[in-house]
């Protein structure tokens, strides 16, 4: 019967008219819904079943809490209906794995009740078409389907929160790097895919409608930066989005239809908005991800959202954001953000830092005239096993990690290689034991403010870099980061004697110096570097010379590029990209003049992605003969890897050439090279 409905819907769709429900559709609201669900067999095509009633257990958001030490300046003029969302997609898989959640009093509670009490008013859930292999093994990431949305939707509705349904239109994670078509739709013509997408969306939403779930918003696609559901032409993408949008209008006419993009710092949002307009997409909300580590400044976020709102007349909001409250990993599966991450870090990784981030994003959205902020997976904590092996079993069995080994058949390059647990357990609002963090109160406190006395919450770590032979002076003060993120200089005493300092400053090396400021421990990273004998070592002259690139494989793009966000330091780096496989093979090298006899060390850095099989190494040559190489890796955006060739024995009169060799086999391979150093050892 279901198939028949789908077929009839498809016929209606192809005939050029959206499926009109034969009975007036109402959003299920408390007290309004009919009593029972009729058997679906009696429904006419496009007709919706009568919704079930979900018994409400409404909670009042807690106001200010006495004794709460979090400093929060209220965001003035925040509308009553401002959306504070929480993506909680992973919760059912975590609970199946044994996770429990506890409120501030230590009482075990439904996590959705805890969220509602803390001012969350919308719950987001990702929906994949079919995240299972032929044997029924889940790909992980919560194995999220419309059934997951049903469970989460019922619980959200029970506690008075609306549901935001996030259709990825894929069988697994869809993001700017991948927008793979669902298995069942592979090879379909655009027309057939459009019909399938409409039916799938309609049936999924009809199930939520029948269950009495209060759906407030529906995303047609997830981070669709120029691709969706295997399509990469805007004419095709928008046709599919439009099919999703028609299904939302038919089932939940009160719900908002949202589109979702990532990388507000890219400058591409006006183009996206223009494309949606050109192809006449019917939608309400233009949403963005905003992860402050990578996505530019808050000023830029406000500017971009305000610009889109002005140009389109649509609502704007942040659909995903998050911030780390600790650098500790709690589930033996590495985190996206750790102490070693080289990313923008506007706040300390503390609960107060997490609050300051949320407050600042809320202000930025408010300044743009936006309608809300949705936090991403603030409930995704580790599954609690005592070892990686123990956790791995749960991840595989319940899909409670980000990807299981079974995902390899669908996503061999990413999930197939890196499957594992939780990469964001340190960005949740719950600790490893499931106990709520004080920072979850931010959603309430941002409305009211919490004007407590400022305190120093941490000290800024200090980096001191000197070149061999330069004088070494340690700073006399260190900045304390206050709870409002302002800085106060405190006098510091370093635990190091003059003799040791003299010794350290006389040789190349790295050292850590500890000290005391206030009652906190200060940390100083001292780096004594050899004189860099390369010219233009970080490409900051904006010219190639004296670097020489030899494009052995005919790589399409091999050139200097000016983009600070893709550079290790400064604004410039060397860039490569090839749309075709087996074209990337090149060397980038220079031969410095005026060296004296001695032993040298050479280092160069690279990052990139989509490289497939890659052979990458730093090298040194004397009079054209290779005398040393150091293998390097290319893994992901912003993961810089260094290659160091040491012990290069040079005699005056020889020609020393240092550089990097890169060869990859995959189509779409790209990378960035930056910061080379040649120094005496
Ligand atoms: Ca982890």
- Physical arrangement of strands within the biggest beta sheet: 7-6-5-4-3-2-1-8
The low-confidence runs, each spanning 5 or more residues with pLDDT under 50, are: 1-40
Give a list of the ligands.
calcium ion
CA radius of gyration = 28 Å
* Strand composition percent: 15-25%
The SS-based structural class is alpha/beta
Overall 3D form? globular
Taking the alpha carbons of the first and last residues, their distance comes to 76 Å
DSSP, total strands: 25
- The level of helicity is 10-25%
Mean pLDDT rating: 92
**Total DSSP helices:** 13
| Largest sheet entry | 8 strands, parallel
Concise synopsis of the structure shown:
By secondary structure, this protein is an alpha/beta fold. The protein is built from 13 helices and 25 strands.
What this model shows, in words?
With 681 residues, the chain is α/β, with parallel strands linked by helices. Helices cover 22% and strands 25% of the residues. An 8-stranded parallel β-sheet has the order 7-6-5-4-3-2-1-8. It has a 5-stranded antiparallel β-sheet with strand order 16-19-24-21-22, with no helix packed on it. β2, α4 and β3 form a beta-alpha-beta unit. α5 runs parallel beside α6 and α7 packs parallel to α8. The chain is globular and about 90 Å long. 46% of the residues are buried. The N terminus is likely disordered. The site of calcium ion (CA) has 8 residues, from loops.
Helix and strand arrangement:
Elements: H1 2-14, E1 83-87, H2 91-96, H3 111-117, E2 122-127, H4 146-158, E3 162-167, H5 190-210, E4 215-220, H6 234-251, E5 256-261, H7 269-278, E6 285-289, H8 298-312, E7 315-320, H9 351-367, E8 372-375, H10 388-398, H11 415-418, H12 442-448, E9 456-459, E10 462-467, E11 477-482, E12 487-491, E13 493-494, H13 498-505, E14 509-517, E15 520-529, E16 548-551, E17 557-562, E18 572-578, E19 585-590, E20 598-609, E21 614-622, E22 625-631, E23 641-650, E24 656-664, E25 669-680
Parallel strand pairs: 1-2, 1-8, 2-3, 3-4, 4-5, 5-6, 6-7, 10-15
Antiparallel strand pairs: 9-11, 11-12, 13-14, 14-15, 16-19, 17-18, 18-25, 19-24, 20-23, 20-25, 21-22, 21-24
Residues 329, 331, 333, 335, 421-423, 425 line the site of calcium ion (CA).
């Amino acid at each position: 019967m279901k198939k028949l409905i789908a077929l009839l819907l498809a016929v209606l769709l192809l005939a050029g008219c959206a499926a009109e429900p034969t009975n007036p559709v109402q959003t299920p609201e408390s007290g309004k819904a009919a009593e029972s669900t009729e058997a679906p067999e009696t429904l006419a095509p496009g007709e919706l079943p009568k919704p079930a009633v979900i018994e409400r257990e409404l909670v009042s958001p807690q106001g200010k809490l006495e004794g709460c030490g979090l400093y929060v300046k209220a965001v003035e003029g925040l509308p009553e209906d401002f959306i504070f969302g929480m993506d909680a997609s992973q919760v059912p898989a975590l609970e199946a794995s044994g996770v429990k959640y506890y409120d501030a009093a230590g009482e075990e509670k439904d996590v959705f009740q805890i969220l509602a009490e803390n001012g969350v008013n919308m719950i987001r859930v990702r929906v994949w078409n079919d995240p299972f292999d032929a044997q029924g093994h889940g790909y992980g990431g919560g194995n999220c389907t419309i059934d997951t949305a049903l469970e989460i939707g019922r619980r959200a509705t029970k506690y008075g929160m609306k549901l935001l349904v996030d259709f990825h239109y894929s069988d697994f994670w869809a993001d700017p790097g991948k927008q793979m078509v669902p298995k069942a739709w592979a090879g379909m013509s655009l027309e057939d895919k459009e019909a399938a997408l409409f039916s799938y969306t309609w049936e999924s939403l009809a199930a939520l409608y029948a269950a009495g779930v209060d759906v407030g918003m529906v995303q047609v696609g997830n981070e669709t930066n120029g691709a969706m559901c295997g399509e990469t032409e805007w004419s095709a993408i928008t046709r599919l989005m439009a099919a999703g949008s028609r299904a939302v209008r038919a089932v939940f006419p009160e719900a908002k239809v949202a589109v979702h993009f990532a990388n507000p710092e890219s400058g591409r949002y006006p183009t996206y908005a223009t494309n949606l307009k050109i192809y006449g997409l019917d939608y309400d909300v233009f949403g963005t991800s905003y992860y402050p580590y990578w996505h530019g400044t808050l000023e830029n976020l406000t500017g971009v959202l305000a610009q889109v709102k002005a140009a389109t007349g649509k609502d704007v909001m942040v659909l995903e954001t998050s911030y780390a409250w600790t650098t500790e990993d709690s589930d033996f599966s590495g985190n996206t953000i750790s102490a070693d991450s080289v990313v923008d870090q506007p706040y300390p990784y503390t609960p107060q830092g997490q609050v300051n981030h949320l407050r600042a994003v809320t202000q930025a959205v408010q300044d743009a005239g936006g309608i809300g902020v949705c936090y991403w997976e603030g409930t995704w904590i580790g599954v609690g096993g005592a070892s990686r092996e123990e956790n791995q079993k749960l991840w595989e069995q319940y899909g409670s990690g980000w990807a299981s080994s079974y995902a390899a058949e669908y996503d061999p390059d990413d999930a197939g290689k890196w499957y594992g647990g939780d990469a964001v357990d340190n960005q949740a609002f719950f600790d490893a034991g499931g106990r709520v963090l004080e920072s979850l109160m931010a959603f309430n406190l941002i409305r009211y403010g919490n004007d407590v006395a400022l305190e120093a919450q941490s000290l800024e770590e200090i980096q001191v870099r000197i070149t061999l032979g330069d004088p070494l002076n340690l700073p006399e003060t260190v900045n304390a980061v206050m709870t409002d993120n302002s800085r106060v200089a405190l006098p510091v005493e370093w635990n190091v004697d003059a003799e040791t300092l003299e010794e350290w400053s006389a040789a190349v090396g790295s050292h850590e110096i500890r000290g005391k400021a206030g009652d906190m421990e200060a940390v100083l990273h001292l780096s004594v570097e050899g004189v860099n004998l390369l010219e233009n070592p970080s490409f900051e002259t904006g010219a190639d010379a004296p670097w020489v690139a030899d494009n052995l494989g005919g790589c399409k793009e091999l050139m200097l590029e000016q983009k600070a966000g893709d550079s290790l330091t400064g604004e410039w780096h060397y860039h490569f990209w090839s749309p075709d496989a087996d074209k990337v093979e090149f060397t980038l090298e220079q031969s410095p003049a005026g060296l004296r006899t001695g032993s040298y060390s050479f280092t160069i850095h690279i990052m990139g992605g989509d490289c497939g099989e890659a052979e990458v190494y730093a090298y040194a040559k004397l009079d054209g003969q290779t005398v040393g190489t150091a293998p390097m890796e290319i893994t992901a955006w912003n993961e810089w890897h260094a290659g160091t060739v040491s012990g290069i024995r040079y005699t005056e009169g020889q020609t020393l050439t240092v550089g990097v060799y890169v060869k990859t086999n995959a189509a779409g391979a790209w990378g960035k090279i930056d910061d080379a150093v040649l120094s005496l050892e």
